[in-house]
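[SOLVED] Need 3D model of a two-part complex

Original post:
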Amino acid sequence: MKKLSMVDKGFLLAESREMPMHVGGVSLFTLPDGVDEQAFLHDLAHTIRDTDTLLPPFGDRLRLGRAGLMGNAQWEPDPALDMEYHVRHSALPKPGRYRELFTLVSRLHGTLLERSRPLWEMHLIEGLQNRQFAVYTKTHHAAVDGARSVHISRSMLSPDPNYELEDSPLSLESWRRYKDALQIGQPGLPTEEELRNVADRLKSTFDSSTNLLRALRGFTQAWTGRGGDLVLPHLRVPGSVLNSRVDGARRFVAQSWPFARIHALGKAFGGTFNDAVLGMCAGALRTYLSNHAELPDKGLKAMVPVSLRQKGDVDSGNAVAAISADLSTHIADPAERMRAVMASVQAGKAFYQGMSPKEVELVSMLMQSPSALLMPLGLIPRLPPYNVAISNVPGIRETMYWNGARMDGSYPLSIVTDGMAMNITLVTYGENVDFGIIACRRSLPQVQRIIDYMEDALCELEMAAGFEAGNTSPAGKPKATKRVKAASKKAKTGAKT
Amino acid sequence: MKKLSMVDKGFLLAESREMPMHVGGVSLFTLPDGVDEQAFLHDLAHTIRDTDTLLPPFGDRLRLGRAGLMGNAQWEPDPALDMEYHVRHSALPKPGRYRELFTLVSRLHGTLLERSRPLWEMHLIEGLQNRQFAVYTKTHHAAVDGARSVHISRSMLSPDPNYELEDSPLSLESWRRYKDALQIGQPGLPTEEELRNVADRLKSTFDSSTNLLRALRGFTQAWTGRGGDLVLPHLRVPGSVLNSRVDGARRFVAQSWPFARIHALGKAFGGTFNDAVLGMCAGALRTYLSNHAELPDKGLKAMVPVSLRQKGDVDSGNAVAAISADLSTHIADPAERMRAVMASVQAGKAFYQGMSPKEVELVSMLMQSPSALLMPLGLIPRLPPYNVAISNVPGIRETMYWNGARMDGSYPLSIVTDGMAMNITLVTYGENVDFGIIACRRSLPQVQRIIDYMEDALCELEMAAGFEAGNTSPAGKPKATKRVKAASKKAKTGAKT
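Solution:
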């Protein structure tokens, strides 16, 4: 029986009806030609359910001692595992647009997983238009972390449209096949020297008097389940509308944009794909907050991952660092706002100069952790605060298939907590970037409009860069011009508030 | 702002992820001829959502002070009432049988209501076969008790197939119209003399040393929200499989039988409709427990409502008393079992002899209350224990319509708690009796089969009474004979265990 790490337990302890601590994803597929939807989905459900060798933790439930989560907690096989409970059929009411899908997924993401069973659910959703179907999965963060969850999703897919599932995609057989092909190693702990470097850096930058080295050692051990201890504090709740208390109801929206279009925009400003994503989000958040008369005087801060690789630098590999970027949402002019965002990203990167990839990883993990898990480090009041998380999950560039069904998009659903009422996560897939936005339905009313505001912001920036708006899109959306007009009107309105 | 009574607070305090304290119902309707399902359901949802004068408590949310539920708790208007959140569209996956409906309703009934919003949801469910649709409602027991909930459901319906909804069925206007037609009075408290009589009776019967009079006074006042106090104990958890700990997942099944068929069976045994219902349930529970090798040596006890009215007696009106009936599930012979059930019902009725209707009502309420709410009376270990509740909700004998859609059946979903893993509730409607059975999915696996076992038990009893099985049914089910054969085989098997 596997012991839970203190970080795993932290996610369970921090959970409430208002703050479920599961992560999810919704993927869109197109049925193979000629197959019947009902038969295909029933066969798929049957294949998924039909295994005696489930990959951990899919067959395991929590086993707590007398002290509950404060004591010894382990994963144990569920003696009455009920695969019908975990793998479910659902359907959309007519007319079966994405709107109906988002409504259903918002509801499903807003309910707690059942603690006496393995902490996951998978929903096969029928009733979409154009021969599409959707799959929504939800897994507790205590059971599967983000990286493993990405690997598990991928292990189900194949680049071969004719590949038929042999075993349940949740079986050990399927996982071993994937792992052999990929050769994933065990993640290593940072060395003592790396811990020391990070402690020194954090101490001098954030002026902390804590014994950071000892705290970091405990933290990394706890994270990987090798002992250590974490204590949970009350969560801090800052003042802006994005940082209010949340209730348990969620609103989810998703949208894809062509990678090339966003990348070209970044390049036109002398920046990166990532800079352009931040520009889009900054513009959209400005419009949303202006429309609700909630735009702060100062720019919103976003916790974002940035690549540290520079031209000719091979040592730092693909190190991705978490930085707090200033979205400069108080600036009305799109180009000026974009340049301010880029400058703040540059400043954020400077902090990491001279760190090893392992050190970068550790610091980034600290900065992105729910504040509840960071308390033992004594850094909470000193780490850079932020209003919203914009996370980038590395994706697949090939078109993938699941039992012959083409995957058309894959949209992440992350966690919303008190003080963080919105989460934007994006994943690159094929030629697109798929955005998934989850928010508290009460604190952020009509947040589904953010998707339209992102398109508006993108068009605005393209105009500012001298592009014909939307023209870099391979799809060449015809409505782009109309949208830009609407966007310019809004920008003027926004400037007045 | 209305204050919550201590009993209302009790339901909130006793609630957990594993034991949601909401009650629900699912009703089946047939679309009016010629209308389009999608348009009809969208119009219906629009009408329900469209009101500025919502009937309390549908627009009210909980407001707690610093002491939480242990302190002052009130209902206050939700400042950001979101009717789209409460009134929802859902759909069934194909082929849209009752099986798919029960699966969806089981899931919906197994999730907690959101405490920061008014404590109810209504789901309009499309995708059923034969031009039917379903409506599932769920309401917290703290917000609406059983009787009010029945009235609210009825206030939406009309015996006139051509009656079109004028206002939202959840509006004050609609409620006033219904109340005027019905003339519902405020329920009165029992008099001091009635309290004294009940206290004396309970004291002598259950040998209690508590000051019952004072406790009862407090209890009835708390129940009606006029003060008083209740303390919640840990719940007792007896040993049988029906009385184990529950988790949060539910299984729901429902079925209708012709009232005349069950009534005729009761009469053939010299008993009542209610006796025949108990006979059906006793046989079904025996089969279910035998099949799972869990049949106890002694008969299961059921808490059931019985009518006390005797021929020529008009004073006691429609007094319905709760008694603990011995289901005699250890007896293999159907007729012998039926006679034992009837004898225990007679013995149970004797307890109420000479009580006024108000006294009967008070004692019955006590006996049916969740044990958590009874602790202050000091009677818990003394009140008759029971394994399962079989509740009878008084229904409507006329065929009813909702905005022109004919109601085909209406099935209750009650509460399942630790120690009470199954609840059987029935309601008479039109020419039928509609049974709704809700159970813990883990403690009672495959409990959906109980519906088949009830039909089997009914056929067995009909054979024992010398009927041609199923022949009293107006529908004249053709499969009845086949079922009886299966049932007899099972009865033999059952006798061996």
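Edit: Chain A touches chain B through 35 residues (CB under 8 Å).
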